[in-house]
Request: fold
Amino acid sequence: MRVVSWCSIAFRLHKLQSRSIDLLTVLFSTSEAELNKTKTMLLPALVLVLMLGAWAQKKAPLALSQSTPLPELHDGDFDHFAVDLPGNRLFSTAEENSKVLAFDLKTNKLIRTISDLKAPHSMLYRPDLKKLFVVDGDLGEVKIYETDAYKPVGTIKLKKGADASLYDPSTKYLYVVNGGKDAHLPNAYISVIDTNTAKSVADIKIDSNDVEGMALEKAGPRMFVVIRGNNTVEVFDRTTRKLLATWPLGEAKKPTAIAFDEAGHRLFAGTRDPGKLIILDTDSGKVVSSLPAPAMVDDMAYDGDHKRIYFAGNEFIDVFQQHDPDHYDLIGHIPTSFRAKTAILIPELNRYYLAVPHHASRTAELRVYKVLP
Reply:
């Protein structure tokens, strides 16, 4: 039987620490017979475990700073966030609880609940109007609230299945995915809503019944759309509303989340089957890299200040470091909770917020992470 040295154990620990695996389990995975032969080597190995654990903790890119319990919520997913920085508020859609929750960004406490909804998915907050636009999939509409008293002040009718949305501050247009499979229609649509007039001005018909996230470039007219039904990203001209290009994502299926590094000419797509981060060149549309990532991704953010990608999926947040446009490393694999896949990065506050749904004996909560250098 082979003799295990503390150096070999240390090597195994070093290889595993970047994936946030409990370092002590490596020791306990060594057979009893091997440990009996190497008792005198256990002490330095244990010391090394503690040193590596401390190093990993110091190097973690996110640190949990606060958790706000939400005991009134039952089982069911959250969807997306919206932020009101001037008013120090964060809004979250508790989709399957049929509520929008408003939190105080200074205390992270729940301050208001909006309940006259069915399945809220995504939101836009316009601080100049003090209005919150909430996309409700089951109602097939965008509901508008003035947020001093949280009163409804208008409705924009869409097709059922309304879900993801994207705001263009240059035109004040809100792009909303609706129709498709959740509306039992063969095609999804992206409706263009003028948020100044609260009216729909156009529809872009999509050659798929399953469409997810969107991203837009500021220096040009392009809008990038995740077409989950076709496993592609499609590129549209926001001015003409015409399709410019279709970019396949390879063998990975169910692309859902999207983020954009405009300065680096890189688009990031998150897939669910399997969980992957896929990096595309926005000049050519080619896939330049892909990395394993958590399952069930719903939200992904690019942090231009730290050159990182935050990828929220089932039970983990993965954080990837961008070394240059073509090279990325996993620097954080942070345990979270079941279907905790909805998150938002607020770079102005150096904070990352994660919605954790109620599941079994676990209470729903809002987790607040500090972004570390």
Q: What stands out?
A: The radius of gyration is 23 Å.
